[in-house]
Structure formats: structure tokens, C-alpha cells
Amino acid sequence: TVILPLLLLAFAFALIGTLAYGVARQAVTQSAAMEMRSIARLKQAQIEQWLHERHDELRLIITSQLALGLKQWLDGGMHDEDLRTSLHNHLIYLGSQRERALGLRSATDGRQLLGTTPYQDLPQVRALALEAASRCELTLEDIHVAEGKTSSGFEVGLFGPVCDPGSTDRDRSLAVIQLS
Predict the structure, then answer these.
(1) What is the average per-residue pLDDT within 129-141?
(2) Of 11, 46, 65, 161, which is most buried with the most CB atoms under 10 A?
(3) Can you list the positions of beta strands (E) in 90-163?
């Protein structure tokens, strides 16, 4: 006779505990989901800001002076050492101002022509340079693990076409700047 009320009381406590756990679990899940959405929006804004800054950076790098010097150097078959040195020094100066590695890649095959640091001339990097050149617009490299180059351990490159300043054909790229 005493066991039945105790069993009912135990069952009631178990039922209340299960319901309370379900409500608490749902509240925690909703709170975590809201927090994750907030973090995702913040990260999206940070990435968009970073891309905007890199785009502005490339616009400052890819000047008409750089394009004219590059056009002269390329038109001369890349044999003029003074122009090559001038372009290379220009890249070194701009890279040091922004603490970035800069490379100048061919618009025809993607190979590195000049650079502030020796890049690995990988097929996927050449493909990205060719994509930027063919579309004449910025191309973003996938984020990847850096080989001891950055403190974060990750890096991403941006490829910006250098268009011929004297041409009305905006689809003609002279070369591609690689910014890392």
C-alpha cells in the first residue's frame, strides 16, 4: 500500500525532470543557434571588409604607371633589364608598404614573371592567374595552410588583372598581380 504512492511520486518526479530537461535543452539549443548565427554574420562582415580592403589595395598597386611600364617591358620581349628592374623595385616597394607578398604573373600562361618573394609555380596558381586574366576581374584563391609564412598558419591569395591602359578592350590583360 505504501509502495504505490511512492511509485506514483517517483513517476511524477521523473516526468517533471524529463519535461524540464526537454525545455532546458530546447532553450540551450535555440540560444546556441542564435549565437552561431550572430557569429556567422560577424564573420561574413569581416570577410567582406577584408575583401574590400584587398580590392582597394590592388587598385592602389595596379596604377597606369605600372601598366605602362609593364606594357613597354612586355612589348620589348622582356629584354629591357632597366624596365624589369624598375618594375621589380616597384613591386618590392609596394609589397614592403603593405607587408604583402606581390607577384606579377603572365596573362598568357600564368607563370611568375616578377615577384617580391619566390612563389611556388603550381598549376593551380597558374590557373587562377589565367582565370583573372581571361575574365579581367579579381579572382580569389581558396584559403589554404601556409608553409610557415604567416603567424595564423593560413593564407589566401588575390589575383588582379593589369589591363592595357591604352586599349579600349577591357578584356585584354597585360599580366596579373598576385597579392598574398
Answers:
(1) 87
(2) 161
(3) 102-106, 112-115, 139-140, 144-145, 154-155, 158-163
